[in-house]
Automatic annotation (TrEMBL):
Subcellular location: Endoplasmic reticulum membrane
Keyword list, A-Z: Endoplasmic reticulum, Heme, Iron, Membrane, Metal-binding, Monooxygenase, Oxidoreductase, Transmembrane, Transmembrane helix
Record-given protein name: Cytochrome P450
Superkingdom, natural source: Eukaryota
Main location: endoplasmic reticulum
Transmembrane segments: 6-23
Gene Ontology MF term list: heme binding; iron ion binding; monooxygenase activity; oxidoreductase activity, acting on paired donors, with incorporation or reduction of molecular oxygen
Gene Ontology cellular-component annotations: endoplasmic reticulum membrane
InterPro entries: Cyt_P450 (IPR001128), Cyt_P450_CS (IPR017972), Cyt_P450_E_grp-I (IPR002401), Cyt_P450_sf (IPR036396), Cytochrome_P450_Monoox (IPR050196)
Named cofactor requirement(s): heme
Residues noted as binding heme in the record, renumbered to the chain: 439
Family: Belongs to the cytochrome P450 family.
Length: 493
């Protein structure tokens, strides 16, 4: 036998020895999951699973539509298993199973591996960290989000920024055109979050900002990478055109936030804490330099709320009876005064508006799905769940379970009247997730939405020539409509 054959045989033998264990594990996993859970038949190709219909040269619209189609193929199953090559995704969409991940004390708090694609950007942020690092950071930040005087201070910022935004909305009303309001809303929420979280005005509503453009573009690149498994390995991504653009944008974003943090630290002692304390200040006060990062609060707190407000305006424009009811509630709170700024006291009286916001977040949750990784193997309901498996909690579908929400596609804010809410299963409605890894900014977001929506509804009547069917769900981490949703503003004055 020539030496070359000997080398080839040695390589084959060592590969078999090296790969034997992982391959055996994959086969075991495939056998167990195929017997425990239904695999959607549509687009399924042996070995490759659903890979080609969820990744590659498909649009983000097709990606989400395929995902929905698979889930609805077995609409009575509490869990289905989607295969990305040999990588299983267990998609949970029935409430009784959610306790495993969402209940206090759950062991499975670590996010799924796809969140690591956000690592370079969000670094030590709350959203992606786990274990002790996450616990410490969460303990430090949480009190700020429950601090009533800090939240009341935020209302001042919402109003100031709205005074700028209202000029743009008034221009649109004068032009009497039906428009996609999202860019204006998103600029407002970005101005708000930068000022409240970082104490920095970025003037997104009035000026073109390199930082703002970088944040928007990097989100697009990351979602594109999520749909392109060949770009997951960091070294390959770095060499690609998208990877190089991603790194260039990261430099812009981190330079900006680093500068904000440095300025804030330098001026920390002179900041009038009672008046203008930002969430960043709680981190500066309690953490060491390299642990301070605010990018995740900024990112989580900007697009999610803009999307929720945009969807709410569309639903209000579609449902004129609901809009009239809302307008009456708001008029009675503000005593027909369309000009005065909104206060914390006003917000606390906006009960019907709260129902409208909640119902919008039910039908159109800004975060349509979240992911976790199973931390240790366990049995539940006669089924085996293996350590390391990726779990998808499909909020969009959970909110459409007819058992908890009869006629699920109907927009009905009365579902959130207190007497009906009390009877509902605690995990039937989870737009902010639930349990110890729930959204830290949910009170802030509701406050922000109420101030914005009540101010707009006081000044403008909303209409649209579109229908609910014009909403075509797609996902870019955040839920989007593939068709722009357009609303016309008509001045009430
Ligand atoms: C309507 C608006 C919002 C919605 C629907 C929303 C929804 C969510 C959801 C579903 C999660 C869980 C994510 C996961 O498990 O992967 C989350 C986490 C988070 N949210 Fe929000 N969010 C909103 C607004 C905000 C705001 C305004 C802030 C900050 C000011 C914020 C900060 C965060 C942070 C830091 C986390 C990570 C928490 C952790 O893992 O401990 N969110 N949000």
């Amino acid at each position: 036998m020539t030496p070359i054959y000997l080398i080839i045989i040695l390589i084959i033998i060592s590969s078999i020895v090296y790969l034997y264990k992982p391959i055996r594990k994959l086969i075991q996993q495939k056998t167990i999951y195929s017997s425990c859970f239904k695999t959607p038949k549509s687009d399924y190709i042996p070995i490759f699973g659903h890979l080609f219909s969820l990744a590659g040269q498909i649009s983000k619209r097709e990606h989400y539509q395929h995902f929905l189609k698979y889930c609805r193929e077995y609409s009575n199953e509490p869990i289905i298993c989607i295969w990305f090559f040999l990588w299983p995704f267990l998609v949970f969409r029935r409430v009784d199973y959610l306790e495993i991940f969402l209940a206090a004390g759950s062991k499975h708090l670590t996010k799924s591996p796809d969140y690591t694609l956000l690592d370079d950007w969000l670094k030590t942020g709350l959203l992606i960290t786990s274990g002790k690092k996450w616990k410490t950071r969460r303990r430090i930040i949480t009190p700020s989000f429950h601090n009533s005087s800090l939240l009341a201070n935020c209302i001042g910022i919402f109003n100031e920024q709205l005074n700028i935004g209202l000029k743009h909305f008034q221009t649109l009303a004068n032009q009497q055109v039906e428009t996609d309001l999202y860019p204006l809303i998103s600029a407002w929420t970005l101005d708000v979050i930068c000022e409240t979280a970082m104490g920095k005005t970025v003037r997104a509503q009035t000026e073109e900002s390199e930082y703002v453009k970088a944040v928007v573009r990097i989100t697009e690149l990351i979602t594109l990478r999520m749909r392109s498994p060949w770009l997951w390995p960091r070294t390959i991504f770095k060499l690609s055109a998208q990877g190089r653009e991603h790194d260039r944008l990261l430099k812009i974003i981190h330079k900006f936030t680093r500068q904000v943090i440095e300025d804030r630290i330098a001026n920390f002692s002179s900041i009038d804490v009672r008046h203008r304390m930002a969430f960043l200040d709680t981190l500066i006060a309690k953490m060491n330099d390299e642990q301070i990062s605010i990018d995740d609060v900024q990112e989580e707190g900007h697009d999610t709320t803009a999307t929720a407000i945009n969807f709410a305006l569309f639903m209000i424009a579609l449902h004129q009876d609901i809009q009239q009811h809302l307008f009456e509630e708001i008029q009675s709170i503000f005593q027909n005064d369309n000009e005065r700024a909104c206060t914390l006291d006003d917000v606390q009286q906006m009960n019907y508006l709260e129902c409208v916001i909640k119902e919008t977040l039910r039908l159109l949750p800004s975060v349509p799905m979240i992911g976790r990784e199973i931390q240790e193997t366990f049995q539940y309901d006669g089924k085996t769940f293996l350590k390391g498996t990726t779990v998808v909690i499909f909020i969009y579908e959970i909110h459409r379970d007819p058992q908890h929400f009869p006629e699920p596609e109907k927009f009905d804010p009365d579902r959130f009247l207190p007497e009906l809410t009390q009877q509902r299963h605690p995990y039937a409605y989870i737009p902010f997730s639930a349990g110890s890894r729930n959204c830290i900014g949910q009170r802030f977001a509701l406050l922000e939405e109420k101030v914005f929506l009540s101010t707009i509804i006081r000044r403008f009547h909303l209409t649209t020539s579109q229908t609910y069917n014009d909403f075509v769900p797609t996902e870019q981490i955040i839920l989007r409509s593939d068709n722009a949703l357009k609303v016309k503003l008509i001045s009430r004055a």
